[in-house]
Amino acid sequence: MITRSKMDVTESITVLESDARQIFRDIRKLKDMFKVRIWVRKDETNPGYSVVESTGNEVNTKQAIDYINANLPRTLSMHIHPDDIGWIIGKSGDNIRSLKSLYHINAWFKQNTLHLRGRPADIEKAKESINCLSIKIKEEIRQAQKKMNPTIKERKNILNFKKMLE
């Protein structure tokens, strides 16, 4: 049980209402983890936002607010080259669906921009995966183009081989 003393401090953070609902679901866990009191209330001056207040000793209160802030969902927007969009989405949306389920994020395209929303750590992992996929795709394209468009040396070898066959 938390007892109030003269040394209690209060810190607050303003979050989207949708994020506040997530915090509210985890409020008991946060209270037990940091041994602080936590309140979630609508921000009267900012429609669509809520205020999360943490009260307790100075260290625990700061840790609780830092933890909440670090785990709040974020949105990352990445510009994607139009040629790569189809590869990222995948056949029938398989790749984008896999990203969503594997990293527990929400992902959507708006024109040439891929938006990722979720916990910062999950978004970072998804971003790395997308970058790796993009590099792999570009390498496969280069290999295919190389086969289709041989270098000058390769062309000479092909001509020499054709002459040998004649």
Q: Which key terms come to mind for this protein?
A:
3-stranded antiparallel sheet; alpha+beta; 6 strands; 7 helices; RNA binding; 2 domains; K Homology domain-containing protein; 166 residues; Ribosomal Protein S8, Chain: A, domain 1; KH_dom_type_1_sf; RNA-binding
Instruction: State the CATH superfamily name of the largest domain.
Output: K Homology domain, type 1
- Global outline: elongated
Radius of gyration: 26 Å
Portion of residues in helices?
55-70%
Compressed to H and E, one letter per element, the order equals EHHEEHEHHEEHH
Low-confidence stretches: none
Continuous helix count: 7
Number of domains: 2
For the termini, the CA-CA separation is 94 Å
CATH topology of the largest domain: Ribosomal Protein S8, Chain: A, domain 1
- Which CATH class of the largest domain is shown? Alpha Beta
pLDDT averaged residue by residue: 85
Largest sheet features:
3 strands, antiparallel
Describe this protein's structure.
- With 166 residues, the protein is α+β, with helices and mostly antiparallel strands.
- The chain folds into 2 domains: 9-71, Ribosomal Protein S8, Chain: A, domain 1 (2-Layer Sandwich); 74-153, Ribosomal Protein S8, Chain: A, domain 1, CATH 3.30.1370.
- It has 7 helices and 6 strands; from the N terminus they run E-H-H-E-E-H-E-H-H-E-E-H-H.
- The chain has a 3-stranded antiparallel beta sheet with strand order 1-3-2. Strands 4-6-5 form a 3-stranded antiparallel beta sheet, with helices on one face.
- A hairpin with a 2-residue loop joins strand 5 (106-110) and strand 6.
- Helix 2 (27-34) runs antiparallel to helix 3 (58-71).
- It starts with 8 loop residues before the first strand and ends with a helix.
- The mean pLDDT is 85.
- Residues 72-135 form the K Homology domain.
- Pfam families: KH_1 (PF00013).
- One of its GO terms (molecular function) is RNA binding.
